[in-house]
Amino acid sequence: MSDALLLVDLQEAFLEASGLADARAGIVESVTALAEAARTAEVPILLVTTEHSRDRSTWTLNMIDDDQGFLFHGDPGTEVVHELDTTGMTRVEKTRDSAWFGTDLLLRMRNLDARRVVIAGVSTHACIAQTARDAYANGLRADVVTDAVADERPEHKDAVLDLLVGDRQAELVRVQEVLDRWRGDTRTGRAPARQRPSDR
What we know:
Layout: E1 3-8, H1 12-15, H2 24-41, E2 45-50, H3 61-66, E3 90-94, H4 105-112, E4 116-122, H5 124-137, E5 141-150, H6 154-166, E6 171-173, H7 175-182
Parallel strand pairs: 1-2, 1-4, 2-3, 4-5, 5-6
Helix pairs in contact: 2-7, 5-6
């Protein structure tokens, strides 16, 4: 089964925010390990970021209601976190939680003959969860890397992951499991996601 690595919303504005700033170093370390292994294994890496237009044409309902847009092109907060080496990554820009909504991601997956997406980034309850659910809706398997995702409200992370697994719309994996798979090491195996809540 062909994989693709989706790195979601690893942008300064998100990882500087309260609740995610403390997780930043760990997320960057985990994502860097995934990206390095993906390059070695020739697994495609898609760097999914959020960006809005100043003319309000891409704003969400909440942004319109609050009359407050953000993540505009050229703003420092919109930039990818400076610690991440983006060499060889394909950029995909989105304006909603799901990486599939209003983007050409599905076409890219078909062109790459990808059957499974490995998802890392932020935030678990929103963009990670919606991207995983829409992968399922589009007929692709989704692996959420539990030690490479984070949430502004950590108590929501496990609840959302439980729902994804309970709905059979995603599997939960750890960074090391993904690295072993891409290196062709079958010794570790993969326990069913439901049996590993303590690994998160």
